[in-house]
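User: Let's play a game. I give you a shape written as tokens, and you guess the letters that built it. Ready? Here's round one.
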């Protein structure tokens, strides 16, 4: 189906990037279409919601960013409350912001959060690889490429950005990571403020064309990013042979539903379950703009960042292996045309996936069901994720807020 271009009923004009190249969007999202279920095509109301989402942002984060700009509070005070909680000295803007976040929605289920984190953590290295694929796949559309390239996504900034994204992912799935004192919770809230500061900066620039791009960091794009980390991830991890039941997938979706709420994504884009997540992600993909030259630049920078990873032994050999593995894996998860035509990257035959499928079927389908098997895999998965993270920051402790792409 070609998405309708009828305008939304009210509010700012629909940015011209909305449904700008329906032929490309249909081709790039056809794999997801078959997973949506009956009646996959978006209704007019669903299309209107996407169009409107391009013009709206996180209002709570926006209010705090404005308060910081006005001198009512500052980043030092924000970091203090983030680390230690509210106290009698906390400024009112921080009190309003954190009071909202600490009052979780009624739908949050701690058992489901913990299980969603376990399902992802159990995958270990495969989790990191599929999420890296999700990051790269996000560059296929030009939806965010201008903003990403402007905030440090190219050249030397890419290696650090990929490492910070992995740090966030790893801490969100660590045991206890999404509790108030957990690093995953803190990093998610920190990212929310950075998004708000970036939004405030870029929407005020003379060279930001709202009529083309909409809000710099908008609700629709936030929903698509949430889909990459949840819906796309679950499809990818299953393609690698990890057998997941429906309840496993829904636990992962619940985890990302809460992460999405915490980071400021509108309730509409928070997936109720895996089926709902697929439908939302497909519709967002169906209206996304085609790639541009910045897409290829970001993809090249991502590939270049792999050359900066540190290994304790056989570094040159390991880097070559990782490059070959990624080409093989990404050619399957992103597709050969997506890799070559959209991102300008080399492709490879699917040898890595063929190797991983039997390993994961035995590991997660058989061994995990033996007494103590899953606990072993969870410990091993966490060690693998910590090692993968250490390759980005060798000998370096990563502090919250140590590096951001927000304007100074």
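Assistant: Ready! My guess for every position:
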């Amino acid at each position: 189906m070609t998405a309708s271009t009828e305008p939304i009923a009210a509010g700012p004009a629909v940015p011209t990037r909305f449904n700008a190249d329906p032929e490309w969007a249909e081709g790039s999202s056809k794999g997801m279409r078959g997973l949506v279920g009956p009646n996959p095509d978006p209704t007019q109301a669903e299309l209107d919601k996407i169009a409107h989402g391009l013009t709206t942002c996180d209002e709570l984060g926006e209010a705090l960013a404005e308060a910081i700009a006005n001198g009512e509070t500052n980043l030092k005070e924000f970091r203090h409350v983030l680390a230690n909680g509210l106290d009698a000295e906390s400024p009112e803007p921080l009190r309003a912001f954190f009071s909202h976040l600490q009052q979780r929605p009624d739908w949050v289920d701690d058992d489901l959060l913990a299980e969603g984190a376990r399902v992802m953590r159990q995958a270990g290295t495969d989790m990191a690889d599929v999420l890296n694929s999700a990051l790269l796949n996000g560059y296929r559309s030009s939806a965010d490429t201008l903003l990403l390239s402007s905030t440090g996504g190219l050249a030397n900034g890419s290696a650090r950005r990929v490492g910070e994204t992995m740090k966030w992912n790893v801490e969100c799935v660590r045991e206890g990571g999404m509790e108030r004192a957990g690093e995953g919770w803190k990093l998610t809230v920190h990212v929310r403020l950075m998004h708000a500061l970036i939004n405030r900066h870029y929407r005020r620039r003379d060279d930001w064309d709202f009529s083309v791009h909409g809000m710099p960091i908008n609700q629709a794009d936030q929903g698509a990013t949430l889909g990459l980390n949840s819906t796309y991830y679950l499809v990818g991890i299953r393609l690698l042979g990890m057998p997941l039941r429906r309840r496993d997938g829904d636990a992962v979706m619940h985890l990302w539903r809460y992460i999405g709420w915490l980071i400021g994504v509108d309730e509409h884009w928070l997936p109720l379950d895996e089926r709902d997540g697929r439908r939302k992600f497909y519709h967002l993909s169906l209206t996304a703009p085609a790639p541009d030259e910045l897409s290829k630049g970001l993809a090249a920078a991502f590939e270049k960042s792999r050359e900066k990873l540190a290994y304790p032994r056989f570094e040159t050999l390991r880097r070559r292996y990782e490059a070959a593995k990624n080409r093989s894996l990404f050619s399957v998860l992103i597709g050969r045309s997506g890799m070559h035509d959209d991102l300008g990257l080399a492709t490879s035959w699917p040898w890595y996936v063929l190797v991983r499928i039997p390993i994961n079927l035995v590991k997660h389908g058989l061994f995990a069901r033996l007494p103590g098997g899953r606990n072993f895999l969870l410990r091993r998965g966490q060690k693998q994720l910590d090692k993968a993270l250490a390759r980005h920051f060798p000998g370096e402790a990563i502090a919250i807020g140590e590096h951001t792409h927000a304007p100074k």
